[in-house]
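Appendix B. Extra example for self-study. Work through it before the problem class; the solution is given directly after the inputs so you can check yourself.
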Amino acid sequence: MNASIMEIVAIIISFVAFFYAAWLFSWVKKQPLQNKEIERVGGLIRDGARTFLKREFLVLARFCAVAALLIFIFLPSPVWTGSIIPNIMMVIAYIAGTVFSGFAGKIGIEVATLANGRCAEAAKKGIAPSFMTGFRGGAVMGMAVVGASLIGVALVYLLTGDSTVCLGFSFGASSMALFAKAGGGIFTKTADISADLTGKVELGIPEDDPRNPAVIADNVGDNVGDVAGMGADLFDSNVASMAAALIMAAALDKLEGGTEYVGMVFCFTALGLLASVIGIMCARIGKDGSPTKALNSLTYITTGIYVVLTGAATLIFGYDMRIWGACIVGLLVGVIIGIATDYFTDDTKPPVHNVAKASGSGPAFTILSGVSYGFISALPAMVGIGISALAAYKLCEGLDPTGAHAVEYAMFGIAMAAVGMLSIVGMIVSNDAYGPIVDNARGLAEMGSLGDEVLEITDELDSAGNTVKAVTKGFSIAAAGLTVISLLGAFMSEVNEAAAGLGIEGITGFDILDPLVFFGMLIGAAVPAVFSAMLILGVDKNAQRMVAEIHRQFREIAGLREGTAAPEYDKCIHIATDGAIRELIPAGLMAIIATMLVGFIGGVEAVGGFLCGNIISGLLLALFMSNSGGLWDNSKKYVEAGHEGGKGSEAHKSAVVGDTVGDPFKDTAGPSINTQITVVSLISSLMSSLFLTASIFG
Amino acid sequence: MNASIMEIVAIIISFVAFFYAAWLFSWVKKQPLQNKEIERVGGLIRDGARTFLKREFLVLARFCAVAALLIFIFLPSPVWTGSIIPNIMMVIAYIAGTVFSGFAGKIGIEVATLANGRCAEAAKKGIAPSFMTGFRGGAVMGMAVVGASLIGVALVYLLTGDSTVCLGFSFGASSMALFAKAGGGIFTKTADISADLTGKVELGIPEDDPRNPAVIADNVGDNVGDVAGMGADLFDSNVASMAAALIMAAALDKLEGGTEYVGMVFCFTALGLLASVIGIMCARIGKDGSPTKALNSLTYITTGIYVVLTGAATLIFGYDMRIWGACIVGLLVGVIIGIATDYFTDDTKPPVHNVAKASGSGPAFTILSGVSYGFISALPAMVGIGISALAAYKLCEGLDPTGAHAVEYAMFGIAMAAVGMLSIVGMIVSNDAYGPIVDNARGLAEMGSLGDEVLEITDELDSAGNTVKAVTKGFSIAAAGLTVISLLGAFMSEVNEAAAGLGIEGITGFDILDPLVFFGMLIGAAVPAVFSAMLILGVDKNAQRMVAEIHRQFREIAGLREGTAAPEYDKCIHIATDGAIRELIPAGLMAIIATMLVGFIGGVEAVGGFLCGNIISGLLLALFMSNSGGLWDNSKKYVEAGHEGGKGSEAHKSAVVGDTVGDPFKDTAGPSINTQITVVSLISSLMSSLFLTASIFG
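Solution. Structure tokens for the complete assembly:
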């Protein structure tokens, strides 16, 4: 099968997804919204989210301008070596990566801030219409993210025919993800913590009380962190997995003199999007149905459709069954990891109960037990990733007809396992974006005084969002893990291509006992820890600024405490926005500079070790922080539901401390680590020829 | 120089150290102890510590019996392959390792529980005699640990001439360390937490109040955790570094047909002990001198003496200067890492101040800022270990006259850097054991009502102990890190030796891109996290049992609350002891079984990856937990000294939560990770021939 046809098929399926998303968007918009208060507050949230996006895009534009200039000068080869056209293509691909990802994020924010109020109002008519509004709002984001990532990669490859340029597109997506995920994560937790600290603790006013100047920023935060940030994160992972697979596919095609492998990558990713489209069309819920079941069954339906579609494609186009096998192994292990992760955060399982029980002895025991379960929760995912990588490798190393290139075939197998794990990403993003929409809907229902019955429904929808989030979060970390392993393979491919171009000897692997590799590994392992620490300290610093602003408003605005004067919501939004970007940049630069230092000191061997250490410790810390954060959150809710003394008890006070610690763990640092790993992996691949030629020890 | 002569020299220097230790012991014993109350309580502490040791030795004996049987059947080769004599030698070496380590621990406990009361009483005469009593008490332990480890390894090697048998001795030391360090860590924190929870929180009685049934267990805990546990831990590291160096030295000697390298290992380790003896003899303090300065200057003096002695030996015996260089690089980097670690826990530096300040906003911020600084604190040590390994490797790879075995020479260089880092371990143990002695002395001075002036002196001595502990702790983790890197080299040596014996192909390294290596690495990285979690949860469970017992005593013993009846101290000691051992065993078995599973599934490649992942994540977590724990401890003390509102303020309450979280971090889980890594490294080396022949994928 000619690869160009598959690229065109991928582009066509992307358009199908876009049209479907447009239909869903207009459906959501058509839902009634009559409550004036909800409309007013919803408008404030939408404006706040737009403010954040606008400022973020502005800063990102400046960052991109600098990066584009550096790319033009240095990548893929220094411009003075005569490589002007490739460098210009790289710059264009890079910019396209940021623009496509930004576009998907913008769409997601728009629909989420439209859907939240309508979802609340629909709850007056029962759970089914409310669920459908929330879900279809999220599905717009799902379609936009996967459609934009697929069409972007396909266009870049169709126009340039060069897989390395896809790395440029991927790097653009990563730049965006760094700002959207880590920056959004700092924003959302700054607002959340400040609102809680001043509102609930100091002033004794309830959550979501409109007198609190931080309350709109808090609701905006849900959208910029969980919708735009999460979307950019999965856009990034999806593009990176395609780029890594394409690099290895292109190398195999070169060996065999065909285009089959590249075609297969596009075929399998396009079918993943198609499966998600069909899955979303299947969404329905009974009059008294369970939203959790509805969401989870959609995931399983999509998985089933994908298995069937790719199996059929494998038979029709005569692909090797072993590659299909690697892809399916990845997908199944991803689902299993999601379920295992769920165990540690589900409020019907022992970990949540034990943490709630330990909270009775004081906050120190909430923390100690949560940290312990968080550590243990990393094990199933680490084992799962290890097994799927091993299985994919062993399945595909036999593909090599000559035996001389078994490693390349095997690494392609791992890349296809990552593609498989990410194949249902359209459904994952839809489920994930559903969460903040119904969370916002709950707050709006309260502010719009829609009554207890509506609140009950929105509570149930919200709780389903939290449960599903645990599964999808485990899934995305695992997928990112497998993706970065294949990026490590891509790095070696790039190094060897660069070495061949320079007429010097390439590398055959990275030996742990090579002290350069080990040196890189130790430093690479420390980077995610330092990166997380900088983000957490950033949230802390930023929250202090915002608390000071809230105090100022209560001091200076007469009548604010009594509810007769409105607070200046926008001031809080500006502080959260500017602070997020200010705190994020040093953390991002630290990771990038560490990579370059290691590369220029120890050469490509040290960089290989660096990436490996970075992946290993990054996965461990990301799983630990995401899961312990989710565990603390649900333990608090479990206590609030009346267990271990219920609201107001000692256990509740301790559980609140756990939840506050867990917030930046699970919403800022934990999920940003993925992006940090992808960024340094891509930089390493892009700079491989520089590291080959200009290092002290390498 | 003939190696046997060096072994004999090492044995002679060990005897010198023993005689000096005996003299110090009798000096400490001769110090006056007249206060009857101190004598009585000191006796209770001594009896409690003896009870713990006795039970620990009993359980260890059973564990050892099983392990010895397994060793006899399987190691170094299955007994049915005709290898009876080597297997018996291995069993004897293993048992000797546990016995020698246990002996050193027993001596340490005896002198520490003699010195504590005398140190308190000496404070009546001023700081100088009190300091000397505490320091000389600690020095007995230092001499016993290093003397016993050196004489043990030297005897084993002198009698068998086989470096692999030294691994058996090392494994024995590790078994002991696992029980003493992890078990002691659970004991001490169980008692500490239970005493605080019931005493200070529930009953409102002061710390160290004799009415609290847990108070003696708490004081016993300081001795079994910090004296016996720490001693066993450094005994283990010291033996492991010697064993790893000997294995590589023996391989080089075989290549060159001499005994020079083995001789050098004994020469350099013996000189380290000699330097410590001289350093301890230099101990003195002015009438109003600073104990912190006195302790630190001793470390620098010992370092200087060691540099000069080994430099002279290198010149006299004609050793290659590059090996001496590797050794000195290790030593200097160790000292620098110790100083860098100190930065994060010193109460005059920003981290402690910032955590104290954050505590004002509530316990969640104490935790978040402490976790963040803990993460960052891992960086200098990781970079330092990386640089010293790289420097040692680069220095020594040129030693190879033919060029074909550069890796072996280079790995020997890393092993010698570890030997260098551990050379001043005699002084380190002395300083470390000083801490719990003066800590106990402070408690005894209070219970014996020795007056405010004495308390002021013991407070100053105690604070010096805490400061020095931060430096020595960073130092020991770094030394363990470098040791396990050289154990990784030893593992490869063992694999290749076994492969040669079996007539199959050996390995040349562990390639990260080999999926078996990567699979092992992911699982190896998860093990220290799970191990830590199991220990922390173990402390928690055990503390609950002890709290229940304290409640029972207050309920059932009439007059206890009024102070007219004595509590049943021994019941609490028994609970802490039995629980510690019960909680420890599953954690230890988990690590051992994970190693075997990985080995029998993925073979030696997977085990290589497993060890690498284990080292990387183990170092990161050990540094994180030890340093954040120390940071929280000192932040609490800083607040108690009157900053951020002082005692009783909101900041103080939060800081107490941080300290409680930090306790099992820094005294149970963090320092036990070293031992966990050493245990799995040794098991891997010992089982290498089984993994070579009986694995599914390997």
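Self-check: Chain B has 18 helices and no strands. If your reasoning did not lead you there, revisit section 3.
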